[in-house]
Design brief:
This protein is α/β, with parallel strands linked by helices. It has 13 helices and seven strands. The strands form two sheets. Strands 1-2-3-4-5 form a five-stranded mixed β-sheet, with helices on both faces.
C-alpha cells in the first residue's frame, strides 16, 4: 500500500474501533491477532464455565489476553481497575504458566487512565510477570504491519483513493482537524518552558513576528504530542514526513526567512483562514523544535567560541 491507501485503511479501521463495544471490539482484536500470530488461540465462553478469564493466548509463548470494551470508556475506569484485579486473579487460578499478560482495552484513542496504569504496575511487581495494556493504537500498529490483503480484511473494502476526489485522506488534515477542536486553556506565561530556539530563529532570518507565532503555537504542542502518542506510529511518521517534505519543496523555490515560513503555513492550510493557519503553526512549532524544518545553526566550539 502507498501512504494514501494506508491512510484510508487507517481511517476505516479507526471508525470501526470508535463504533465497537463489547464483542464487536473483541472480534476486531481476534481477527488481527489471527493474522499477526499464527499460534494465537481465541477462547470463547463455554457454558457455565465461561472463558476462565482468558479471551485468547499465544500458546507457544504463554502470552495471555483479556479484552474489555465498555460503551463509555471515560466513565468506566473504576470498572477497569476492578476488572484488572479480578480477571488476573481468575486467570492465575485457571491457566499456567503465564509469562506475559495484556489487558486489551478499547480506549477509543484517548489513552490510559493513570490510576489504571498504577494498578497494573502494582500487579506486575507483585506477581513478577510481564504485564501491560494494549489499546486502539497498539492494534492499529499491528494491523498496519500486516500484508495488504490482511489489512483490507480487517479494515474493510478499500476503494481506490484516486476515485474519491471529494474526500481528503491526508494525515496533515486529520491533525489540523484535531487541533481545531482543542479548547483554549488559560496559561500563565511565566510557567511555560519555551524551547531555546532564539539562535535558530536568527540563523533562519525569521522576524520577531514569526517567532511570536511559533511561541504561541508551542503552547499547544503538548496536546498535539498526546494525540500522536495515542495514535499509531504511522500517523506520527507520516505527519513528520509531510511537513519536512513541504519545507524542502518551498525551500527549493529559493524562499528564505518569513517568506519561507508563510509559504509553508499557507500551503499546509486547507483554507487560508486564521483557525487553519493557527493549527498549522502549532504543527510547525513541534517540528521547528525537533529540527525537521528550518536549518539548525552551526554548533560552537565551547573552548574557542568558534563554529564547528
Amino acid at each position: 500500500m502507498n501512504p494514501q491507501e494506508k491512510t484510508l485503511a487507517r481511517l476505516l479501521f479507526r471508525n470501526k474501533v470508535l463504533e465497537s463495544d463489547g464483542q464487536k471490539f473483541e472480534d476486531i482484536f481476534t481477527n488481527i491477532m489471527n493474522y499477526a500470530e499464527p499460534d494465537f488461540q481465541q477462547i470463547k465462553p463455554w457454558g457455565n464455565i465461561g472463558d476462565r478469564k482468558n479471551d485468547g493466548y499465544i500458546k507457544s509463548k504463554n502470552i495471555y489476553f483479556q479484552v474489555y470494551a465498555p460503551e463509555n470508556i471515560s466513565t468506566s475506569y473504576p470498572d477497569v481497575i476492578d476488572k484488572l484485579d479480578t480477571d488476573f486473579k481468575g486467570l492465575l487460578k485457571q491457566w499456567s504458566p503465564i509469562e506475559e499478560y495484556y489487558f486489551v482495552l478499547n480506549d477509543k484513542y484517548n489513552g490510559i487512565n493513570p490510576d489504571c496504569a498504577i494498578k497494573f504496575k502494582q500487579l506486575e511487581k507483585q506477581h513478577k510477570i510481564i504485564m501491560g495494556f494494549k489499546t486502539a493504537k497498539d492494534l492499529e500498529n499491528i494491523l498496519l504491519d500486516l500484508a495488504d490483503d490482511q489489512i483490507q480484511a480487517v479494515a474493510g473494502f478499500l476503494p481506490d483513493p484516486k476515485f474519491l476526489k471529494t474526500l481528503d485522506f491526508s494525515i496533515l488534515n486529520e491533525v489540523i482537524g484535531f487541533i481545531l477542536n482543542l479548547s483554549l486553556i488559560p496559561l500563565e506565561d511565566d510557567k511555560i518552558s519555551y524551547p531555546d530556539w532564539d539562535e535558530k530563529i536568527k540563523f533562519n532570518k525569521l522576524t520577531e513576528l514569526s517567532a511570536n507565532y511559533l511561541n504561541n503555537g508551542f503552547q499547544q504542542v503538548g496536546n498535539l504530542e498526546n494525540y500522536l502518542k495515542n495514535n499509531s506510529n504511522f500517523l506520527a511518521d507520516e505527519l513528520e514526513k509531510k511537513i519536512h517534505q513541504l519545507y524542502l519543496e518551498e525551500q527549493k523555490k529559493g524562499l528564505l526567512g518569513d517568506d519561507l515560513f508563510w509559504s509553508i503555513v499557507n500551503n499546509a492550510s486547507p483554507k487560508k483562514e486564521t483557525p487553519y493557519q493557527t493549527a498549522v503553526i502549532i504543527v510547525m512549532a513541534k517540528y521547528f523544535e525537533s529540527c525537521d524544518i528550518f536549518e539548525e545553526p552551526p554548533k560552537k566550539n565551547p573552548k574557542k567560541g568558534m563554529s564547528i
